[in-house]
Amino acid sequence: MSTPNSLIQILIFCNFFLISQSTDTNTNFTFHGFNDTNLDLQGATITKPSGALRLTNTSNFVIGHAFYPFPIPLFNFSFTTQFIFQINPASTANRGGYGLAFTLSPSPGFPGAAAGQLMGVFNESNDGNSSNHVFMVEFDTVNGYNEKSDSDGNHVAINLNGMNSSSSKPASYLPEGSRDNEEEVYLQNHGPVQAWIDYDGIVKHVNVTVAPLGVDKPNKPLLSLDLDEESDVLLPNMYAGFSAATGEKSSSHYILGWSFCLNGIANQLNASLLPTVKVVKASSSNSSKVRTALIATFSVVLVVLVVFLIAMIFYRRAMRFDILEDWEVDAPHRFRYKVLYTATKGFRESEKIGEGGFGAVYRGVLPTTGGEIAVKKIMSNNSLKGMREFAAEIESLGKLRQKNLVNLQGWCKYKNELLIVYDYVPNGSLDSLLFNSSTVLSWEQRFNIIKGVASGLLYLHEEWEQVVIHRDVKSSNVLIDRDMNPRLGDFGLARLYDHGKNSHTTNVVGTIGYIAPELYKNGQASTSTDVFAYGILLLEIACGRAAVMCESHRNVILVDWVVECMQMRNIFEAVDAKLNSAYVVEEMELVLGLGLLCSHPKAESRPTMRQVTKYLNGDEVLPLFERLSSAGSRRADEVTARLLELGLSDRYSNTTFNYVLLSFKIDFR
């Protein structure tokens, strides 16, 4: 008859054993600093590189929470925890506020909690409600919320469901060997403080102990409380964490280390492994000496300020700071130099995000709006006429607005420097993502970039009020925004002319590998020369290789290499290996073929950007693919063979086709 009861007892024991085993791995932890931890932070931050957990800074009326992210089972379980904290008041002359608390709660957060003396845990409407189920040990530095029970600052208290303390004493400890001479523990402005909380889940009893860092755990706890009468405070699963708040008084509240163990003794924290936070202690001299020192300091500061102001007045008069000329006054989008100087932190080296032949680019934050900008700083020794031409171009280009162009916000001239202000684009340039990044752009992202740049060039060539020739289309001038959309930028070489007329540029500019052949012969830039550079860009994106590569101590031209792959009857050998064959074959064929067509050495054989966009959007079929479709196969070797049949059997063939690149070696004879 006793067998069923024994079986039930065994099952209950096994159940508790399994629960204990499953929870040990998740609830036994030791943190010496909090770098690389996954705490749930709300208003709190982890300071770098030290790893200290800062619950609040010295701002007024702020709240910070930090929770261990997994629930802790407390049904008839015990736990011990040790943590080390440090409280630095905002001013050494006055006490800060309002302290911090260790909490156990049903969820990892206290929505609607109030700052100040409520310590970010409760608010006036729920303070004291039994439905809160919040166990709290507070380390208070200001006169308490409830004057009857928490009348002194610098105290420790155990609170259940509210700020009315069930047990409270001034922070102190009994040194080893002493019977009754307790020593005070200063919770703030005296360096790190240790705290231990021991909970016996069987008898529902809790002990709280504190001591300065460097002192072994005292044998006698500071506070003890029997939870028998309030046994419904702790639910079977609770979240452990910390809360801190400031009010009219403020402090920085730090947690330096934390260990926790369920059904065991928490690991002793090692002081040598903890992050350090500087303590600024008040002077020990008497008040008259302090006042004398303050007066002397104020006098010195006042003299320095007067000298500085006088020096600034003479400097402005001598240097004629930021002089404006008549032609500059009416130009739009002109920034004051001091605004850009402040935004870039004085053009500090740490704010530099790029550098090229035309100048350095700095990241900045406008002090008035908080908007992010990119500032290109160009040294110029141009004549007044050249400066006026530059201003006229800035005035026109400043009106360009299209989603795939980097918007030019404005400009500034200061002495012999030209400053151009653009939108800040956070993901950097396309070339850095293609060639120098561990991040691999997917084919979907690459095809989106290809279509976006085409859309931007179509706007420049045909859709704006004037024709804009970019003259420097390349992967380093394509910036990628937060949504991985392309923005064509750097209009330093751009030229404008009216629709229906021809460009009058005669100088060869651009980047080697992207310059169309006719530019070398006559220097005549056109929309077609932009198309040539765009074709090279297509091949770079598809192949993951730069326009000009150095291999085996020789320069390799990307277009030549693609043709070599085609002659070997496998054009897909040219595809970027980092894609690992994860691409749409038809789209890859289109991009490779269109790249070759756009970079045709004969300008008249290249498509316009409107034709390019139609090919990319599927509105028209690339003539090359019309011929290929008759082959009835899309395999790589057959595509390559068909290309060769169409006239590419001879790399330097003189036969002319109007839809495919036939020769890549420019004959200057």
Brief characterization of the structure:
This protein has 669 residues and is an alpha+beta fold. Helices cover 28% and strands 23% of the residues.
CATH class of the largest domain: Mainly Beta
Q: Kindly, what is the distance between the CA atoms of the first and last residues, rounded to a whole number of angstroms? A: 112 Å
**Largest sheet entry:** 8 strands, antiparallel
Low-confidence stretches: 10-25, 146-151, 282-286, 318-322, 627-635, 645-669
CATH topology of the largest domain: Jelly Rolls
Give the beta-strand count.
29
Which key features would you list for this structure?
8-stranded antiparallel sheet, Transferase(Phosphotransferase), domain 1, 14 helices, disordered C terminus, Jelly Rolls, 669 residues
Q: Could you explain how this protein is built, in words?
A:
With 669 residues, the protein is an alpha+beta fold. The protein has 3 domains: 26-273, Jelly Rolls (Sandwich); 326-423, Phosphorylase Kinase, domain 1 (2-Layer Sandwich); 430-648, Transferase(Phosphotransferase) domain 1 (Transferase(Phosphotransferase), domain 1). It is built from 14 helices and 29 strands. Strands 1, 3, 4, 7, 14, 15, 16 and 18 form an 8-stranded antiparallel sheet that branches. Strands 2, 5, 6, 8, 9, 10, 11 and 17 form an 8-stranded antiparallel sheet that branches. The protein has a 5-stranded antiparallel sheet with strand order 19-20-21-23-22. Helix 7 runs antiparallel to helix 9 (527-543). The longest helix has 33 residues, at 287-319. It is elongated and about 100 Å long.
